[in-house]
Write a structure and sequence with these properties.
Elements (H helix, E strand, L loop, with lengths): L1 E3 L6 H14 L5 E3 L2 E3 L3 E3 L5 E3 H10 L10 E5 L4 E6 L2 E7 H5 L8 H13 L5 E3 L18 H7 L3 E6 L5 H10 L3 H6 E9 L7 H11 L3 E6 L26 E6 L4 E2 L5 H5 L3 E6 L2 H5 L3 E4 L1 E2 L2 H11 L1 H10 L3 E5 L1 H5 L3 E3 L10 E3 L6 E16 L3 E13 L9 E2 L5 E2 L1 E4 L2 E4 L8 H8 L15 H19 L2 H11 L1
Parallel strand pairs: 1-10, 2-9, 3-6, 10-11, 11-12, 13-15, 13-16, 16-18, 18-26, 19-21
Antiparallel strand pairs: 4-5, 6-7, 7-8, 14-17, 19-20, 21-22, 23-24, 25-26
Helix pairs in contact: 1-2, 1-15, 6-8
Amino acid sequence: MLAGTGSDVGKSVLAAALCRIFRQDGYHPAPFKAQNMALNSYATPEGFEIGRAQAVQAEAAGIACHTDMNPLLLKPQSDHTSQVVLNGKPIGNKDAYDYWRRGTSGIDFRKEVCDAFDRLSARYHPIVMEGAGSISELNLRDTDIVNLPMARHAHADVILVGDIDRGGVFASVYGSIALQSDEDRKRIKGIIINKFRGDLRLFDDGRRMLEDICHVPVLGVVPYFTDIHIEEEDSVALANKSRVAERGKVNVAVVLLRHLSNFTDFNILERDPRVHLFYTSNTGDLLKSDIIILPGTKSTLSDLYELRRNGCAQAIVKAHRQGAVVLGICGGYQMMGVEVCDPHHLEGDVERLPGLGLLPVTTTMTDGKTTRQVTFNNGWQGYEIHQGDTRPFGGAEHRPFVTFDDGKTDGYVADEKCMGTYIHGILDNKAFIDQLLKPFAEKILAPDTLFDYQAFKQQQYDLLADHVRRYVDIPRLYQIMQDDD
């Protein structure tokens, strides 16, 4: 298990690295995280939902993702409530306090996640487990089902990951170990210091000091990197991406929604040499964009209300009238319609909000959830994760975006500059990107080079594995695992 001194210390990326390393060394690894909290999710081949991080780790391991890799997923809907997804299926919305109180839900979550681990460990070896947040949240110890209690169930060795970039690494590492029970402290077999900047030799004394005070070996000090690209789980850094329009490229603005989900839909556009992509909720940025993408959201009505309040809705409509392409994906597609209705109050108290009116469709929020992988247009692929039913408004003509291989249709196309779809991953299909960029062909100075995103991702996993091998004592890690066996 890779456990952390806190959130965002790099556990997910290091877990992906170990999945790749073990696969390269001839093993059959699989990732596991008992409970994940994220809006960025993914549909398994069976049509169930898991956290995107475990899907990425499974890809690094060279296997298909499965709900047993992330049996419990919490998708925040507000500061106090989350949708609870158990074994790939939503089971309702829970208040944070009620969720953490034992017995309130009527479901034994601890048993559910342990059963999922047992099923997974019967099929793969080794299991690369990931903890959540900090392992030293004493107030949550009795209800913790993802960190040390899960390691005890799995008989797992624990490697503690500390983030030196944020400062205070000695206190966070030592404190995280010191606050454990005697039994759990013995499980911590190594320390990895992550995100180091500068000359590694400057930390030689620090490494020895940590080992002296913690009585646990430091297995590696991993430098911070910016030249290896692994899909991220959290959207914290999106607003920091450049918003300056670039000449010779098609400027694509992704609307930065408060509850934005599945932002990995746009990773391939960031690598396309013809495109300059940025995230913004600034009306001026939207008006100077060639293409505006309304992304997925966990709270369509809340984000639609905010777009109307901050002026973005009006800016998007104005930009489209001035020639910009507008594409809506999932919740963004719902917002582009005439209205979004929530008669059963699934998202809150608001029963109806007018949409942007760019597409002649109406959406009604429904209790059921569509989660599946799809193929269409002679081999194009993607996946759906959404609630709500969208159909033509009034007597509007039915103009579907795509027809699936099973004959069903999806989305709506007004014209080549205005369209919406429920399909996540639509941009992973190069032919669609070519179609999207076609109206701006005269702007593009870079050659239309073929970009193989799948090959690119595989290359990045190999680069990540090389990076971690260089700075982490993998032979010693294997020895720790063998000693435990």
